[in-house]
Amino acid sequence: MKRKQSLFENLKLYIEKGIYPLHMPGHKRRIHTPGFSSLYDFTEVEGTDDLHHAEGILKDSMERTAGLFGADRSIYLVNGSTSGNLIGVSAICPINGELIVARNCHRSVFHALELRNITAHFVYPEFDHDFGIFGGVSPEAVEKMFQKYPDSCGVVITSPTYEGVVSDIAAIASVCHRHGAILFVDEAHGAHFGLVKSAGFPENAIRLGADLSVQSAHKTLTGLTQTAFLHMKNGLVKTENIERFLDIFITSSPSYPLMLSLDDCTEMVMNEGEKVFGNWAETLRLFDEKIMSLRHFRVLCHGTDSLQKHGFFDFDKSKLMVNCRDTHMDGERFMEIMRERFGFELEMQLSDNALAMTGPGDDREQILRFADAVLTLDREEERGNIFSDRSEGMSLMSMDLCQAVTIQCAVEAESEEVDISEASGRISSEYVYCYPPGVPVVVPGETLDENCVEGLLKLFKNGYKLHFTKSSPYQKVIACIKADKK
Question: Rounded CA gap, 115 and 124, in Å?
Fold first, then answer.
């Protein structure tokens, strides 16, 4: 029997293909954590400290990190921003409590709502129909939610979004604090914010007034995959709550190589930040300069496309979202061509868009080669303005559906599969996701209406890859609470 190749051997073969990563992690396999080997894989013994009760070298390391990010306290997470969202939501809201939650939050936020049986009052971000993506959450929308749901103890929003859209955190924090509520920001894609002012990235949420934020160190910094930071500020979040849920949601045997890579993120920024971030910013400037002549493809807030055209509060220029609406291809085909013809692997595609992520570890020549590849495809287009409504399917997630019961009640209720075309008026018992980015299209407990049913069928028709947590996506059915169990 032929021996199967080891994981190491298979990964080595992939590396040898020479495909350039236009996706996370931000180190791009070019910036390495010192001493990353089994030699540094410790457990909690005398002298190595304990993440759950840090009093020595880990405490010192996390204090340096807190100083860098402007936080009162920073905690290393080895289970990703997913664990940070579970910890944060659980810490700021009691069981059966109420929270105002942005409808475009990551699924881990919804899982926390489910576990704590929290009643979520959804605030909907603006929707950019031009690119078919979510915009930011407005302070005015948050204020209206507090007027309607004054018992809400906090607000949870995502900023920046996967695509790079940034909300007005300072104004939203002001609204929250005026109502005596906590602001928790899922800033998973913004770990690079506010660290090197001259690089021109937006300020981070903690410095803008957020009480709690979570950041993925591996997405846009140099941490290893599944590393993240949880930052606290202002004293509104009870430390004992954070520590309680840290014990629940983080492994009791945290990986020292992962924590070492988190410490190295801090050291890199403190010692080489100006140089590394300056190079990154200059690379993005040169990318913009190169793509000014695009006629058919567009890159969100880059080149001739601007922040003002979309009405966003701010934007993370490290994200390169290529829109194919005025071409003969969709995002999936664009990704395939980039992979097969030009040797680039992008982060994700959704409808008319394909997302390339840059990071501090990028090679400038490769990013400019990507610009040349887009320009090559642009020149090959015979004509533009071939309008497609593929991205309009994503506007389904901006529909204000009625939340009939809590997520937990809906998930745990007896359910039955219902043909989607006949599901209007029924209460969903499962999540339906487009992944990536992991934002639910349907949340358990929501009453499906005709518009939602039509939208789901449209997503199927337009080739979206939908994920159902109970049903098979191939049967076009959805799990709903049994009719006699509502």
Answer: 22
